[in-house]
Amino acid sequence: MFREESRSVPVEEGEVYDVTIQDIARQGDGIARIEGFVVFVPGTKVGDEVRIKVERVLPKFAFASIVE
Asked: Contact at 8 Å (CB) between 32 and 23?
């Protein structure tokens, strides 16, 4: 049952994506959305267009870093 939910996650650890930061989390990390899925990106601000690498994927959100 929970395994089916994890298949709907549209990102994979280690993959690179081009995103636009749409919001800021309470902790100050930028928030991007990939197919509606939340990805936290530290060191960004709203409006930034960045290339990110997904570092960790959880069932409801992911963490990524900026690719230089």
From this structure: no
**pTM, to two decimals:** 0.87
42 token code pair: 């530290």
Sign of the CA dihedral with 39 first, then 41, 47, and 52 last: negative
* Secondary structure element (H or E) that encloses residue 5, with its range: helix 2-7
Give the separation between CA 17 and CA 26, rounded to whole angstroms: 23
Q: Do 20 and 26 form a contact (C-beta atoms < 8 A)? A: no
Question: What is the band of 68 on the pLDDT scale with cuts at 50, 70, 90?
Answer: confident
Average the pLDDT over 16-30 and give the result. 97
